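Contributing new records

If you add data, match the layout below exactly. Sequence lines come first and carry their own label; structure lines follow with theirs. Keep one chain per record. Anything else will be rejected by the validation script.
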Amino acid sequence: MKYYFLLQYQMLQRHLREFGLAPIVGYLLASLIFLGVSGLLYFKLPATAPYIYVFLALSVISSLGKTQRNDFLQANFPKRAYYKLRCLENIIIALSFMLFLCYQGDFIFALALLLFASLLSLVSSNRQMSFVIPTPFYRYPFEFTVGFRQTFPLHLFAYFLCFMSVWVGNFNLGVFALLLSILLCCQYYGEPENNYYVWIYAFTPQAFIGHKLKIAFAYANVVAAPISFSLLFFFPENILLVLGLQLLALIYLAAFVLAKYAVFPHRINIAQAILLTICFAFPPFLLGVIPFFYRKSIHQLKANLS
């Protein structure tokens, strides 16, 4: 097990060097971004920040439980060692979030996060559901068809938060529900499709990117429609703010779409993840990141659409 964590550490070191950063600089930059985003969250949404923070931490931890990854670990470790490894991984990821929660005085939330992180190590994502959730995304399948079914409970949670925001008259909670609903769609673009599903399009790279962005915007608006319409109806005095925040969330979605194809047919790498994280902390950074990803996408797609 020690060699597994050493291997993960060496891989992280290599990714940082490939990005052109000395590892120590990468760690320092990541720490500053983490603290900046955490502090901004508590500054903007002090009442709901602990709930959002725990949710974000568990979302990151749940990404470690993907089926393919678990199959690899189970094939290489005995059952007891596998669960121990999963538990240690989850706690290591949760530790930075827990320390910040303790710094803010939210000790109960820190303990809850520790408990849920430990319990998630016992959850097997290898079980397949026999019930197929219907979706309205049949015309242009793949990202939203697969992603929506995987995150369906989280979308229900977002709709529940919207209901509660209307019930108690808390507009900020509704805003979080709206942003959560659209930002969940961003993660649908973390997995690249097979080259064939790009090659079949008789498009130029520019037209293909435009086509993908139209689908992403249309489907994300469908997913967020119940929340956005509720906020516009029950909080009409904040109509410009709702529309502005929804537009900003869609711009983030565009950045994720472009990031996906900037390295196609590979997965989004650590360098892009750092850039996207910086964008969350400093939205004006999108003005430089989006054109950069767009140029890289055009270059990568030329080989697959020619």
